[in-house]
Amino acid sequence: RLNRMEKNGLRYAPGETSSGHRVMLRSVHDPEICKALDLEPAEEAVIRIRVFRQDDKPTSVGVSVYPPHTTAVVPELGEDVRMVKQFDKLYTERTGREVVKGQRTAHARQASQDELDALEIDAPPHVSVSVLVTTVTFHDDERPLAFWEDVYAPGSRVPIGE
After folding, report:
1. How confident is the model at residue 82 (pLDDT cuts 50, 70, 90)?
2. Where are the alpha helices (DSSP H) in the chain?
3. What is the per-residue pLDDT across 113-144, written as a single tens digit (0 to 9) for each?
4. Residue 147: which CATH number?
5. SS3 of 48, please?
6. Helices in 29-152 by DSSP H: which ranges?
7. Is residue 157, in this structure, part of any structural domain at all?
8. Burial (0-12, 13-18, 19+ Cβ within 10 Å), 64
9. Domain of residue 30, residue span
10. Domain count of the chain?
């Protein structure tokens, strides 16, 4: 999405929309996210969640986590409104420091019930559903700034770039 927005200014691909936007301040306990953002367990961060849809069918759940030092510079991240500009551009404009996207990684795991609900997957409780998850961390020359995770519905086509 960042590359597409950089190239042509379009937030979505043809036929793509998003729904279920939520913004919250929560304690972070996930060890992967704490390590990626250099947070202590239970430290609070802004979490933004949305469901991406293709032709009105859910394809992925996007979760973005921003530590306090990022939201201090870009307070719009904590507001329950759609961002008009990407966080990295706002951060660079306000600090003069370049935001660098780390290596995007992927792994498979079992979907949580919240993810199944968001992806509109009706599976019996005794059935596990595998999903593909991609993650990426953004940082400047001093510290990590954001952790993004995308959880893809089974059967979704995942673009592989770079």
Report:
1. confident
2. 2-8, 31-37, 68-73, 87-95, 113-118
3. 999 999 999 999 899 999 999 999 999 999 99
4. 3.40.1410.10
5. strand
6. 31-37, 68-73, 87-95, 113-118
7. no
8. buried
9. 2-152
10. 1
